[in-house]
Amino acid sequence: MDDPEERFTALYDRHYRAVLGYALLRAEHGVAEDVCSETFLVAWRRLGELPEPVLPWLLGVARNLLAKQRDSRGRRQALVDRIAALSTERDTVAWDVADHVVDRTTALAALATLPEQDVEAMALASWHGLPPEQAATVMGCSTRTYNVRLHRARKRLSRALRAEAAAGAGARRSRAVEHGQRFAEEA
């Protein structure tokens, strides 16, 4: 495509949803839309310089724009809030295989304990399905560094899930003991 407008339109049509989805995981809807718009404005200005594949570059621009919006603690909390917002009351009542593998509340609590960089490394691999080379581009590091970060993030998540599950099991046991004591008192 020689026409810059056609090239940009094709780029926008192909990647808008991915960039917006990336931003929505990290920010409020209005902020995410603004970041997405600014990302494509940067792409328009640098249309002749865009690398292939372009999606990791676009996500990297969006990431940098989001970094300007909030400090790291605020971004991490917003991400956890967005994931929690995806769950409805119906989701917790309806039977779901994933609920039997890891309780959603436990998973969200474990994610909330992780540094934002860990959550982002896992989201790029799992949620966005990016290969390590592209995820590394988004995070602004080498592929080797990304792979190490992802490995460590998964280990930290595993430890956090075990800790959350143990805490939840202890709470369930104490409720069961309390219930048993009330039952014995009533009898």
Automatic annotation (TrEMBL):
UniProt GO MF annotations: DNA binding; sigma factor activity
Stretches for region Disordered: 168-187
Domain RNA polymerase sigma factor 70 region 4 type stretches: 108-157
Keyword Cytoplasm annotated: no
Keywords associated with the record: Sigma factor, Transcription, Transcription regulation
Residue ranges with Basic and acidic residues bias: 175-187
Protein family: Belongs to the sigma-70 factor family. ECF subfamily.
Name of the protein this chain belongs to: RNA polymerase sigma factor
Organism the protein comes from: Microbispora cellulosiformans
